Amino acid sequence: MQDYLVPYDYFELDQLILHLSRNHTVKKLTLKGLYELDYIWYKLPVSVFSLHHLTDLYLGEFDLDHPPTFEGFGSLGSLYLNDVKISTKSLLHLLSNCPSLKCFSLDIGELDGECTINELLKCLPVIKRLTISIRAFQWLVLDPVPQELPTSLIQLKYLRLEGMCIDEDCRLAFHVLIKCSLNLERFELVVYGREYILLLRHGPIYELTLQLSIDEDECLELDQIVSHLSINNTVKKPTLCGWYNDYGYEVPISIFSFHHLRDLVMSGVDLYHPPIFNGFDSLESLVLRDVAIPTKTLLHLLLNCPSLKNLSLDIWESGDKCTISELLKYLPTIEHLTTSPHISEWVVLDSVSQELPTSLIHLRYLCFKDMTLVERCRLAFFLVFIKCSPNLEKVKLEVNNIIIFHVLFVLIITCQNTLTQTLLGIFRFGGGGVGFFGVFSWFSQ
């Protein structure tokens, strides 16, 4: 509703919420305040609690307390509390009066006391998606008997823990929470501590996102987690995000034992494969973003992904070069292809570039990012791809130079008969044209 509040806005906000509460038509409400100096939060208008038909509620940077007569939000399905000040008693009372709550995100700015894991989760009987920040997690304490948790977790499908630092104070609570999520399908962990990380759970995890810290000294040692998950071999959609520097994080060898992968995303890492790597037979989508990988390794990886349909390449420090034909012959089923400007640094034109392997007959979508004329080969790459893709349906270009935009437009219309001349443009201009950026795409008939 409003991103930032200044003191003279407070009264108007109160009046507006009060007016909306009379009609009972608001279903999705987003309110973001701004706490002042000395951590003084703006108190949330009481009238918010009279919006009984809410289905989604996002509150950020508020002093949150409910009136004694508050009877809850019977229809509320999603609740997001971001950097709020609230008493433990008020929070538990709020949650216990949201019987339909399925999605809950908690990032607490200030609390007046601790709460046990059981006390929190027994207020969430039908919770399916749960996000907890490090500040909220440190507020939770273990119950006297931490081996079991309320059966409410049987509904939990998605769990995200943000900014975690698994130290002596909350490590056991983390283990208990993971172990007792029997039906968990997706688990996202953003961790800044690198020690004592164990996944003590028995149920399968199908999607996993692991994010390294920007601080190299505090990076999570992913090897142990990836190795543990590879034992059960249930992960189908892993995402590994590193922080690339001169010494990028090297992907654990155990990642190559995930034979049932369907989607794989790797960002900011060094990628090498073991000599015994047999490939990902089921892999359909591969995203390599800011990845350092030798050309030989990349080609071997692509060769052993026979089902690959979607590929996004943004790699560097590839070393050896290869021709376009050499690259594309490893993509017999490719349908969606996205490339970065770095492609011209390691892929070279064939001596006879008029024809390409028939693998491009399946190509439906092509995206070239950051097209420029600095490297002359990039324009040639684009034209070769266009000319030899008879079934291409959509092309997307991102250009940062107004001259190349006009050149491309003329060449496309001249040399490509399979594409229509329908051109959709979105442009942003900076001062003096320096900040020009264009994205345009067209579609087949």
Automatic annotation (TrEMBL):
This is Leucine-rich repeat domain superfamily. It comes from Helianthus annuus. Keywords: Membrane, Transmembrane, Transmembrane helix. The keyword Phosphoprotein does not apply. The lineage of its organism: Eukaryota, Viridiplantae, Streptophyta, Embryophyta, Tracheophyta. Residues 24-111, 246-315 form the F-box/LRR-repeat protein 15/At3g58940/PEG3-like LRR domain. It comes from the Eukaryota. The chain crosses the membrane at residues 399-419, 425-443.
